[in-house]
Amino acid sequence: MKHTIFILLFLLRFSPSFSQKITVAKDGSGEFTSIQDAINSLDTTTTKTRIIYLKNGVYSEKLMIAKSFIKFEGQSEKGVIIRIALPRDIWRCNHPDDYGAATMNVKGHDLSFEKLTVLNDYGFTAKGDTTIICTTEAGGGGTANKGYAIHRENGEEVGKKIVRKDGHQFAFRSMPGATRLVFKNCTFRSGGGDTVSPWDAEGGMFYFKDCTMEGGVDFYCPRGSSWAENCHFICHNMSAAIWHDGTGHEYSKTVLKNCTFEGDKGYKLGRYHRPAQFYLLDCQFDKNMADTEIYHVSSSPEPQWGHRVYYQNCHRKAGDYQWHKDNLKIDPKTISVNWTFEGKWNPLK
User: Fold this and answer.
1) Sign of the CA dihedral 133, 136, 137, 138?
2) Given CA atoms 132, 136, 141, 143 in this order, what sign does their dihedral have?
3) Which domain holds residue 105?
4) Domain tally for the chain?
5) Within 13 Å and on the Cβ side, how many CA atoms surround 54?
6) Has this prediction a pTM greater than 0.70?
7) What CATH number corresponds to the domain at position 136?
8) CA-closest candidate to residue 92, choices 176, 200, 172, 167
9) Domain annotation covers residue 34
């Protein structure tokens, strides 16, 4: 009997399949030294959230998260750094889709991420633009991947791709079906565009609080419905900082509450190519922001449901522009997390 109890206690302590919390530590003081190995150890049948606790350290690994009901909890936001260097174009010249193009790649649902930094530092370390052989649709051959095709530049030769130092570089990229994702006290940085890309226009629901996001064009670009509160945005591109795709439903929206924006001189706040709906409440803009409203890109189809960009109590440090004056059509008190997600999900519980 005592022998049986000892075995059960041993399994509960050391077997990831029995544990509710797994520790990952670079110094070997946890069950794993690799985050991906910890993810791979989890079963796929439970609907109970498991915790992967990350001790401070630099984890130079790409994460592929196809499992659900996991909480990734870092020891500290600045101390836990997950990093790779990979431009989207190089990945797509060898693969049919984006799963694997980011530092953190997600297919699972009901996930949360707290106190960690996710970095794609290609744009910070690359010496300049380069041209590579590219035989997939990204190189102009084959059939484009619907909705997520790689942009072809004027003058690019078929079978080749220009990889820009400041091109698309995902720190975070989720695929359709990855929904009910929570991010708290996280930093996402890249040297290019689309840094934070939670992409599920049909059923996506994403919640960000107290996060920092930095990158180039459209570096915060949710598809579906998204709430960002007390977040800090840093833009290094003149076209747009934020972006939204609400194609799936008329009610889909991106809400930014009490967020702050800064960037290189002349950066524009935002844009959209597809049906979109923006709500900015109590936001602060730095003096470098251009005098340009969140705009529809004229080369894209006219969006269904029209131009829907709303502001409430948003101010620029060096003086307000006319276009971000209060224009809400509803009582601002009704704008809440529950309202954003149509009562379908409560990330606060």
Assistant:
1) negative
2) negative
3) 76-340
4) 1
5) 28
6) yes
7) 2.160.20.10
8) 167
9) no
